[in-house]
């Protein structure tokens, strides 16, 4: 069973420290040395170290349909054909040899001969597949998720922004609509490559993220200021921001309570929180089937998240943590998947902890090969607008 990739804990993911110590980690893009210099210093300490794991066999499979596909594509033939040839010939000679030799064979005789070869072929195929099953992973714990997400974003910065750029409308425009009248500072929590900087050009904007790779991408795009910190340890003063926006990050926070406590701390009383979260695909003819097909190809039932209840249940969680929820809206965007590149980008943008890279690469190749002009995938998102009591 392949184990979860275990990158080392980034500096920003170190255990909780005093606020003064935390301030020492802050990387302000406008500060001395600039973000790239600081980020480059940090990333050296964040090299991934992978645990030793058994090599993956050729032709791995995890669902029965994948196993059947391997048989139909002849992937088991190299092992099964010689066995079927020997066993089938012996069985046919013993059981049907005299009938065939006396030239009295009927259709029934030849059917039996066929079965003599088919059965050992199938048995040998099952033997071949038995050693290649990739079993479902146990769920990673919070620390494993943290390490996985840190390595994921350092290895593929801006992946979320690039993927959402393929949507029919900008989810970032939708997210930030309620903030256009905000005159005070706006904090983009877990800003990634900072796409909201461009859609809030006149705001006193500040981006925070724990990934050095993502912040370097933001800096390359000229999106400033950004600082490197964890969402549950923000180096900002009490009530220092007027609004917080958070795109596609709440289901990543595990546990979510300390992050909400930190938002309470930095958001002024009466301040606004706008959040965008993935919403479950509805069981509706095309959309649901396409997500199901995608998940099946990847050998999973649904996309894993460390805090899945913070998707459609985010409004409830915010109420439980003292926020007043002003609105909750679900909107289905459409992703263009008409080219192999777009399919590969979609799969690159999914969190798949514990999945063997070769298995993912195989699914990616198959799905990318099916990309056709006009192929689209519904992308349901939920926007929650809330505020702190004044
Ligand atoms: C799906 S990406 C979204 C990025 C950006 N908001 C966007 O929409 O393009 C999630 C982001 O959350 C960041 N992140 C995850 N856990 C974090 C934490 N505990 N503190 C700060 N950032 C975190 C990741 O580094 C990543 O940039």
Automatic annotation (TrEMBL):
Organism, scientific name: Haloechinothrix alba
Boundaries of every Methyltransferase type domain copy: 187-274
Region (Disordered): 1-64
UniProt keyword annotation of Transferase present: yes
Keywords recorded for this protein, A-Z: Methyltransferase, Transferase, Ubiquinone
Taxon lineage: Bacteria, Bacillati, Actinomycetota, Actinomycetes, Pseudonocardiales
Name recorded for this polypeptide: Ubiquinone/menaquinone biosynthesis C-methylase UbiE
Top-level taxon in the UniProt lineage: Bacteria
InterPro entries the UniProt entry points to: Methyltransf_11, Methyltransf_Superfamily, NrtS-like, SAM-dependent_MTases_sf
A GO molecular-function annotation: S-adenosylmethionine-dependent methyltransferase activity
Cross-referenced PANTHER family: METHYLTRANSFERASE, N6-ADENOSINE-METHYLTRANSFERASE TMT1A
GO biological process terms held by the UniProt record: methylation
